[in-house]
Design a protein that fits this description.
The chain has 535 residues and is α/β, with parallel strands linked by helices. The protein has helices at 13-22, 31-40, 47-51, 66-73, 79-87, 115-125, 139-149, 154-182, 235-238, 249-265, 310-320, 338-345, 360-369, 420-434, 459-470, 489-497, 511-521, and strands at 2-7, 26-29, 45-46, 95-99, 131-133, 208-213, 225-229, 240-243, 291-297, 300-307, 328-336, 350-358, 374-377, 387-391, 394-398, 411-412, 441-445, 448-453, 478-481, 501-504, 524-527. It is 36% helix and 20% strand. Helix 11 (310-320) runs parallel beside helix 12 (338-345).
Length: 535
């Protein structure tokens, strides 16, 4: 039995090679793989000894040879194949162990592997007779099966071949993405002359690897799993679960929405006037010197607040809509101390609490409140590069929805301008509204969401829901609309509730009419020129 070893990742190589040698396998190795076996004192043949040709072109050509690929590709059930290899004096290769250069980590022409993918694909194609191993994680199982059975089963070879093709597919996808970056100014097609878009290229190659199975999908009768871009871990991969039951599909969906919004709320534009007290022990925030808390239910914020300390931020977020908060996700931009945990434990049941960190006493307190609540500490969420949504056999792809217009660039369209406090509330309301399902209206007062109307076909109804939740807290508050007011009626709902300032994108043919209605009601209105629909 002969095995060909040619790996970039040397993890577990010595153990695998040593185990194969003990089982009587003949080993063939190339380049630096051979050097590692030399240092370990493991007997092997160099590829050049098999091919009769030295490595050349700086290592670009070493395994590309009939004596290698004939040994891999020969169909042992086909007499003519066996005759060919016998005539050429080619020895069969029964196992190929190879993994490719980590192209995504340091992309360059020199990391575009040719011989490796060719070898891997050849072995995977001939899985009926040849085993191919591309992941060091498979080494122990391979050795165990060989020791027990003397050979790899057909099922194992088929599974390994599938993994091998996924490995080369991901590798090729990374190279295509690199070319997209290099050719950002190249024409998309031969005739249109349109500049290529790095985020929306002519073809899109996403290789996703399963990161974690889930209890079930959106509903119990659906299966689900969390995937990630191969070679590109997300914030979820660095999160630590300290307590609670296994995460579900909706736990992850809602927690991601909450965690991203809480970080947006502690950006500089949302910092409380006069700066934040901040500090260790949960009082400080993740950015901008503020502490923030968000409560999400069904991917929409039902409570959110920015304050000088985390306890206050949570309490004020809860006040926004305590009824909807039951069974929601709580996101806290800071460290959860025992005091913060006491505040959360005294509130409605939370299915997930995600924060920057948890003190041990805080975990103990929250577990005592409810053992099933998932407690997650996590780093800042990674930036979104593109958004992808499936529609059966079609896909919608777009660039990320970012808050690109800052309050400094907003335009006051009424005679009365917002006060300093109102500017802050407008910024907070704008962020909350932009992360709420459309049509959406949010109302904020003192850095606190006091009313959110989400997911309505009518903007008027969204405004009515928001003011109904806010009640008297709407008086003197600031409101945001995720898209323009097509008529003054939605604004008039806010005006009757006592809202004092409104931010909206503008862009309607009736903008002047809406601004006039705001003027008549004594409301300060500003436009952003930026819409944030969310479906």
């Amino acid at each position: 039995m002969r095995a060909l070893l040619s790996v970039y990742d040397k993890t577990g190589l010595v153990e695998l090679a040593g185990g194969l040698a003990e089982l009587g396998w003949e080993l063939v190795a190339s380049g630096k793989t051979a050097s590692v076996l030399d240092e370990a004192g493991i007997a092997h043949l160099e590829v050049s000894a098999v091919t009769g040709s030295p490595e050349m072109l700086g290592g670009r050509v070493k395994t590309l040879h009939p004596r290698i690929h004939g040994g891999i590709l020969a169909d042992r059930s086909e007499p003519s194949h066996l005759a060919d290899v016998a005539d050429q004096g080619i020895e069969l290769i029964d196992l190929v162990v190879s993994n490719l250069y980590p192209f995504s980590s340091d992309p360059s022409v020199e990391l575009i592997d040719v011989g490796g993918p060719t070898m891997v694909r050849a072995a995977a194609k001939n899985f009926a007779h040849v085993g191919v191993v591309t992941s060091p994680a498979d080494y122990p199982g391979i050795l165990a099966e060989l020791r027990h059975a003397g050979s790899l089963s057909e099922g194992t070879r088929r599974r390994l071949a599938r993994t091998a093709f996924a490995h080369t597919a991901g590798y090729d996808a990374a190279i295509v993405a690199w070319f997209d970056d290099l050719e950002g100014a190249a024409p998309v097609g031969p005739d249109d002359g349109e500049a290529a878009d790095v985020l929306l290229p002519p073809t899109l190659h996403l290789t996703l690897e399963r990161a974690a199975p889930l209890r079930y999908g959106e509903n119990p009768h659906q299966r689900g799993a969390r995937y990630r871009l191969a070679g590109a871990p997300s914030w979820w991969d660095a999160a630590t679960q300290h307590a609670g039951t296994e995460l579900s599909y909706l736990n992850i969906f809602d927690a991601d929405a909450a965690w991203r919004l809480v970080y947006e709320l502690v950006s500089d534009a949302a910092t409380p006037p006069g700066g934040a007290a901040g500090g260790a022990g949960g009082a400080g925030g993740a950015a901008g010197g503020a502490a923030a808390a968000v409560i999400v239910k069904h991917a929409n914020p039902c409570g959110a607040a920015v304050a000088h300390d985390l306890v206050t931020a949570y309490q004020r977020a809860l006040e926004g809509d305590p009824l909807s908060a039951f069974g929601g996700v709580v996101a806290l931009a800071g460290t959860v101390t025992e005091d913060v945990a006491e505040a959360v434990a005294s509130g409605p049941q939370a299915d997930v609490v995600v924060a920057s960190a948890f003190e041990p006493a805080a975990v103990t307190r929250l577990v005592a409140r409810r053992k099933a609540t998932r407690l997650l500490s996590a780093p800042a969420p990674e930036a979104v590069s593109r958004q992808v949504r499936s529609l059966g056999g079609s896909w919608l792809v777009q660039t990320p929805d970012r808050f690109e217009s800052a309050p400094e660039g907003w335009k006051v369209v009424t005679g009365v301008a917002p006060t300093e406090a109102q500017w802050w509330d407008l910024a907070v309301a704008w962020r909350i509204c932009g992360r709420t399902t459309s049509n959406a209206i949010s109302i904020a007062h003192g850095g606190q969401a006091v009313g959110v109307g989400a997911g309505q076909q009518s903007r008027v109804v969204a405004a009515e829901i928001a003011v109904a939740k806010a009640g008297q807290r709407a008086v003197g508050a600031a409101a945001a609309s995720d898209a323009f007011f097509p008529f003054p009626d939605g604004l008039e709902v806010l005006a009757r509730a006592g809202v004092a300032a409104v931010v909206q994108p503008g862009g309607s043919v009736r903008d002047a009419e809406v601004a006039a209605a705001a003027e008549a009601a004594g409301i300060a209105m500003v436009t952003t020129g930026e819409r944030h629909f969310r479906h």
